[in-house]
């Protein structure tokens, strides 16, 4: 077979075929036809052993030269095809930097979340510890341990959400329940705050919602008196409303778990410039019966507690007229009132 093969014509024919290859697959097909296990050049090399020594030497040199030349052509054509492929990718994937950038919108912290963070920061700077408690409570923690009498109206179903088929269990009506749970695990002195959802059987309107957020604070230390309560809450109100001259008053009230009890009012100026007193939170000295429920000697340790409706503070500070706005997903409202991260 090698005796009749014209290597010049053979080489030239395959070089033309290589130049006509338009993609990597066709180039690989030719490589296999020439240099594969059953390729033309491979078979010719196997046939050399059947020739005489002189003819084998002559034909072998020509065959090796043809193989080397075609191998080099294969490599050169592969480089060309790779360059062409890269050029095509660059052309098709070109980015027009003159186009305007895609709009990028940064997220914002919800106004309500930001207010809670600010309140926590204020009290934590005063040494308060943040705690949490369950939203599904039993009557003992929600009422009994907090000195609610059995006939108290808050125990009735028209005020409280009781769980069906679970007697004695309810959705907590205040975060004061965390006081009891903490005092059973941790003895005074302590300063704690707890924020969370609470539930009341109210109709949904501009100023009421059956679910809202309450922040509860408790201080229990020897020597604590009502002056500490007034100083702490007066300073908080002035800090929160960013008004160091804000007028704050403490008005007698009644809560089962504090004695004496006080409502805290601020002198508020509305959008019409009219000034009036508005209630912002409830407070009082911890009732001795609450301390006794937690095995604490009320003659040795005294303290004060306070409860804040967070939604009410947000509405007053930012001039909102409808509590439902805090729970709507109106992007325009969120963009306007959202706080930067």
From TrEMBL:
It catalyses: tRNA(Phe) + L-phenylalanine + ATP = L-phenylalanyl-tRNA(Phe) + AMP + diphosphate + H(+). The gene is pheS. It is found in: Cytoplasm. This is Phenylalanine--tRNA ligase alpha subunit. Residues 80-316 form the Aminoacyl-transfer RNA synthetases class-II family profile domain. Keywords: Aminoacyl-tRNA synthetase, ATP-binding, Cytoplasm, Ligase, Magnesium, Metal-binding, Nucleotide-binding, Protein biosynthesis. One of its GO terms (biological process) is phenylalanyl-tRNA aminoacylation. Its main location: cytoplasm. Its cofactor is Mg(2+). GO terms for cellular component: cytoplasm.
């Amino acid at each position: 077979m090698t005796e009749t093969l014209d290597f010049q014509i053979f080489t030239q024919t395959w070089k033309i075929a290589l130049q006509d290859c338009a993609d990597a697959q066709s180039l690989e097909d030719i490589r296999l036809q020439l240099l594969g296990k059953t390729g033309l050049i491979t078979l010719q090399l196997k046939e050399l052993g059947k020739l005489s020594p002189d003819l084998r030497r002559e034909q072998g040199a020509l065959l090796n030269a043809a193989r080397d030349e075609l191998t080099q052509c294969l490599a050169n054509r592969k480089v060309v095809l790779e360059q062409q492929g890269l050029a095509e990718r660059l052309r098709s994937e070109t980015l027009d930097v003159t186009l305007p950038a895609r709009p990028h919108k940064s997220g914002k912290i919800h106004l309500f979340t930001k207010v809670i963070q600010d309140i926590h920061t204020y009290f934590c700077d005063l040494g308060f510890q943040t705690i949490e408690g369950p939203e599904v409570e039993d009557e003992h923690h929600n009422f009994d341990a907090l000195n609610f009498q059995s006939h108290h109206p808050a125990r009735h179903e028209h005020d409280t959400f009781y769980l069906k088929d679970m007697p004695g269990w309810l959705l907590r009506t205040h975060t004061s329940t965390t006081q009891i749970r903490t005092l059973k695990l941790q003895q005074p002195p302590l300063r704690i705050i707890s924020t969370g959802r609470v539930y009341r059987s109210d109709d949904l309107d501009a100023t009421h919602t059956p679910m809202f957020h309450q922040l509860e604070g408790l201080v229990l230390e020897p020597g604590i008196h009502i002056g500490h309560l007034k100083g702490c809450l007066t300073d908080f109100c002035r800090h929160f409303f960013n008004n160091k001259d804000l007028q704050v008053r403490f008005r007698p009230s009644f809560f089962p778990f504090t004695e004496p009890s006080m409502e805290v009012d601020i002198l508020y100026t509305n959008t019409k410039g009219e000034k009036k007193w508005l209630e912002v939170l409830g407070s009082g000295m911890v009732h001795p019966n609450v301390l006794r429920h937690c095995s604490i000697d009320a003659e040795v340790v005294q303290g004060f507690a306070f409860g804040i409706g967070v939604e009410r503070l947000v509405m007053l500070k930012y001039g909102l007229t409808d509590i439902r706005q805090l729970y709507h997903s109106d992007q325009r409202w969120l963009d306007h009132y959202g706080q930067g991260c």
